[in-house]
Amino acid sequence: MSTDGKWYAVAPDLQVAGASAQLYVVICVTNIGRRPVQWMGWGAKLRKAKDGKSSFVMIPHMLPRVLKEGDWHSEYTDDLSLVDDNTKKITIWDSSGKCWYLSRRSLNELRKESKQFKLQA
User: Fold this and answer.
1) Nearest Cα to 76, choosing from 27, 23, 43, 7?
2) H-helix or E-strand containing 34?
3) Annotated domain spans of the chain
4) Three-state DSSP class for 114?
């Protein structure tokens, strides 16, 4: 958190005085359409069921949230199991039930980055 009370993010390998070593997964959503969208939640679908469940929902910090044209919002979690090898898709959904998924390439890059910084910690 900066001196003015706003959150900010830096590369995990950048040393910042007073910064936590805790890693987070941050998802940023931008409404590129012309109509408002109400972002309701986010979560993941799993390759193999865990404890009898094939998906899970992340507990949001500031959702639901209406995103007008060009608006954006970020949510985060310290639950790094979101990017383990059992995660098939990371998804967000709106109030109408429409879902959007993180691309497979982006998910693989996120996994790679997560493993890299877990080893450094």
Assistant:
1) 27
2) none
3) 25-120
4) helix
Neighbour tally for 120: CB within 10 Å? 10
pTM: 0.77
Residues contacting 34, CB < 8 A, separation 6+: 69
- Within 8 A by CB and 6+ apart from 28, the residues are 72, 73, 74
Residue 39 main-chain phi, psi, to 5 deg: -75, 120
Task: Give residue for tokens 């404890």.
Answer: 51
| Residue 48: Cβ within 10 Å count | 8
Q: Flag whether pLDDT at 92 surpasses 60.
A: yes
Nearest to 11 by CA among 28, 29, 26, 31: 26
Contact 43/91 with Cβ under 8 angstroms? yes
The DSSP call for residue 59 is P
Structure-token match 């059992």, residue found: 86
pLDDT tens, 10-48?
666 677 677 677 788 889 999 999 999 999 999 999 999
Whole-number pLDDT of residue 37: 97
